[in-house]
Design goal:
By secondary structure, the protein is an alpha/beta fold. 33% of the residues lie in helices and 21% in strands. The protein is built from 13 helices and 16 strands. Strands 1, 2, 3, 4, 5, 14, 15 and 16 form an 8-stranded mixed beta sheet that branches. Strands 6-7-8-9-10-11-12-13 form an 8-stranded parallel beta sheet. Helix 5 links the parallel strand 9 and strand 10. The chain starts with 8 loop residues before the first strand and ends in a 9-residue tail after the last strand. Bound molecules: zinc ion (ZN). The site of zinc ion has 6 residues, from loops.
Amino acid sequence: MTGTTSFDLILRQARIAGGDAAPVDIGIRGGRIAAVAPNIAATAPEERLDGRLVVPGFVETHIHLDKACILDRCRTEGTLAEAIAEVAAAKRGFTEADVYARASGVLEKAILQGTTRIRTHVEIDPRIGLRSFGALQRLKRDYAWAVDLELCVFPQEGLTNDPGTEELLVEACAAGADVIGGCPYTDTDPNEQIARIFAIARRFDLDIDFHLDFDLDPARMDLDEVCRQAEAQKWGGRVAVGHVTKLSSLPAEALAAKARRLADAGVAVTVLPSTDLFLMGRGHDHDVPRGVTPAHKLLAHGVTCSLSTNNVMNPFTPFGDCSLIRMANLYANIAQAGRPAELADCLDMVTRLPAKLMNLDDYGIAVGNPADLVVLDCRDPAMAVAELAQPLFGLKRGRRSFTRRSPMLHRP
Ligand SMILES: [Zn+2]
């Protein structure tokens, strides 16, 4: 590094997840990472990180901004069927302004928690039409300074059983939807829905993200058909499935076989710990199963896995602060993943791996990538998850996008 190289900003003494233990400097120029080296010999505005951990921002593969924050309009009974019915009724009253107002509030929380890339799932059907989609398209433009937002349109209430839905999904794809989603478990003909979603994906050259296998009965799994289609259509690496709580009901050997199937077919998995814990096992009055698929065990077989928020303050999940570090900690705790390497895997499942799931090829702390950088108040990945390390500040394409003040003691 020569003394004449110029930077807009240098982050000094940063630790990088997956990198060497020794701190490095990160030089930023023109919104991109221009250098990563032990001691950058240049004069520029700088931030001293004193060995704190820097991540390229958290990545959320599965959130529902359109139906967030509607608890005041719904009952929260605690089963999946009731949650779908409650939201279906509330959805008729959604206006574009209403969706925008609620979604922007949630998006701002996510930004303040250090999230820099998001895939939001948007419901499309004849009741809501394209109102939510329109609101979120506007949101995507308005918040591009802080977060890259992908819109995944999907039929929450079924496709083949809901006339008019497929035409609206196609209309949304033609109008710029980024990803096509599905929800075979609410369809009267799950295999036909899966086939039609793959057909739309091929027509518009889109990745696919299904809501899938969302109960604890492993007898019949839509996963098998999704893997079969992913291979038949040569769509491996472009298909993700969310929830798949049925996998949590499988004994170790059967789980390992499904994991190998997922890895071979190139189908990634998103686990949604908060929702799955809240909705699964409602038929039990004691010894309630956790109902959360053990994502960290799938990693060993080569499955790409992410942990995500899913719902915020609605009948599916009457909780939520949009913190992915909290989601990683919640998952680690209930999955009994406590060894340092397992905790580091949990951080990976809210950063690097979800970026891989979304095929984001410009994500990561490497020269040439956008300077999306979030500083966590900790020294290493395992500690970040174990102690719920808080983000202190973040940059999006080199520009500071948020700051959180450290708590402070006032001694006598
Ligand atoms: Zn979902």
